[in-house]
Amino acid sequence: MDSEALKKYSALHPKPAGLTLQYGTAGFRTKAEQLDHVMFRMGLLAVLRSKAVVSTIGIMVTASHNPEEDNGVKLVDPLGEMLHPSWEEYATQLANAEEGELQRIITEICQKAAVNHHKDASVFIGRDTRPSSEKLSQSVIDGISVLGGQYHDYGLVTTPQLHYMVCCRNTHGQYGKATLEGYYEKLSKAFTELIKQSPSSGESQRHLKIDCANGIGALKLSEMESYFPEEVLIHLYNDGTKEKLNHLCGADFVKVHQKPPRGLDMKPNERCCSFDGDADRIVYYYKDATGHFHLIDGDKIATLISIFLKELLAKVGQTLKMAVVQTAYANGSSTRYLEETLKVPVHCVKTGVKHLHHKAQEFDVGVYFEANGHGTVLFSKAAETKIRQLAKEEKDDEKREAAKVLENMIDLINQTVGDAVSDMLVIEAILALKGLTVQQWDAIYTDLPNRLLKVQVADRRVIDTTDAERRAVTPPGLQEKIDALVKNYKLSRAFVRPSGTEDVVRIYAEADTQENADALAHEVSLAVYHLAGGKGAPPQPM
Ligand SMILES: CC(=O)N[C@H]1[C@@H](OP(=O)(O)O)O[C@H](CO)[C@@H](O)[C@@H]1O
Ligand SMILES: [Mg+2]
């Protein structure tokens, strides 16, 4: 390592004095102007990681659904997964090192992680459409270059597209071609094959309105449109030409506020969906004839996909083990439907995609979704091999056809990470094949009314949780208080946890009516405020 060069270049990306940041649930995320040094240093870290695992590593510059002024960065591991937890710690150390300590910290990481300096390093870079992203990705490149790494800059891509590229590269093309064209071709071919067999529905069923959150999704969907079969009639809104990224629109806004985004005119019973700012989340919704808004969130997406896959797996007659992975935020009705009606095992894990992904890998077919619309399906290698073999060789027509559908689902699904474009095509294909309208999908089960709130406290780390974050262990008395409050309502449930992406404590409550869910959420937020060091004025009822 050329220490002089490191010193010189690092000085061009100085760390603001006193600033400490944490590699959280989704990498580093904060105001864009505080991130230049972090980007440079994550360029350094990506080189080390690449040398340590002798594979291409990805770096995505994005702050997803956060405001346009923010930005962030996350690293992508060789098969397109999130950065390994042991390296999150190194990322945090490197980001927070003072200028004079940088060299030492790098040496320490190299020792601890057995980085082989003789190996080549290769990094793929992508960025979202934020005004700050281009300059920040240039800082990433500076970091990569100073340690002698090779890089390929994909420029503007969705987060899942970058994950896909990294996986393609490290599987030497087995997963697909590591180009945007390769991505578009793979997905649209699988989709076209799938919907060939769908009963022809009227034209009105083919329209889909998409709120692109004024982000990257709009750009990439426009690029992809020429690959789609003509049955697909998508209409893009909030394409970023007029309004600000994520402002009053996008999947997070729609999910949190349970209302339609601005900038999308919705007629009764029209099928609509929203992407988030980096297009790794999607939620659907529609307005009924009385004007009432219906949200179809990640839980209902997981349910639709599970119903479809379960039927196919039964048809191919293999004993492949399927399970659904959720977090505590999953609506109680969804868990109950999956377990009791569909009879699919459900597992609850901690918030954050990496936890869901990890758990889903334990099954032949692992469906995972966060309620907010981030999710995908993982097929084990064994399951995939079996399905592809049946699709080719099976003599029984019905079994072979079912296997072919599964095979195309495998190709359509981005198995590296939740992907709004891929998920949307999966959903559209399932609705078309099953001849389901958005209302029929919504009616599979009825969501329990729920409310998500946040409370500011002096130090959110005073709250420690257990049981996949469903119970608070500290501060003393808090869980007992929550238990007592929950008892006052029917079909109720509530939990609190410190956010991994914002300086807040999140409160979730559900109950038999919206009024009760709101009241319970409010009472729990007061308990947090009083027992966990609330900041500012006490939370007000809604
Ligand atoms: C309740 C909620 O939606 N939490 C989100 C949010 O995490 P928090 O740790 O709750 O801030 O951001 C994560 C990253 O995008 C996402 O994985 C997660 O689902
Ligand atoms: Mg996102």
TrEMBL record:
* Pfam families membership: AMG1_II, AMG1_III, PGM_PMM_I, PGM_PMM_IV
Q: Which residues form a coiled coil?
A: 380-415
The Phosphoacetylglucosamine mutase AMG1 domain is annotated at: 178-283, 297-435
Q: Which SUPFAM superfamilies match?
A: Phosphoglucomutase, C-terminal domain, Phosphoglucomutase, first 3 domains
Q: What is its EC number?
A: 5.4.2.3
**Catalytic residues identified in the record:** S64 (phosphoserine intermediate)
Q: Which cofactor does it need?
A: Mg(2+)
Q: How is the co-factor bound, per the entry?
A: Binds 1 Mg(2+) ion per subunit.
Which enzyme type, at the first EC level? isomerase
The residues listed in the UniProt record as binding Mg(2+), with positions renumbered to this chain, are: S64, D276, D278, D280
| Alphabetized UniProt keyword annotations | Acetylation, Carbohydrate metabolism, Coiled coil, Isomerase, Magnesium, Metal-binding, Phosphoprotein
Q: Name one GO biological process term.
A: UDP-N-acetylglucosamine biosynthetic process
Check the record and name the InterPro entries matching this protein. Answer: A-D-PHexomutase_a/b/a-I (IPR005844), A-D-PHexomutase_a/b/a-I/II/III (IPR016055), A-D-PHexomutase_C (IPR005843), A-D-PHexomutase_C_sf (IPR036900), A-D-PHexomutase_CS (IPR016066), AMG1_II (IPR049023), AMG1_III (IPR049022), PAGM (IPR016657)
The protein's name in its UniProt record:
Phosphoacetylglucosamine mutase
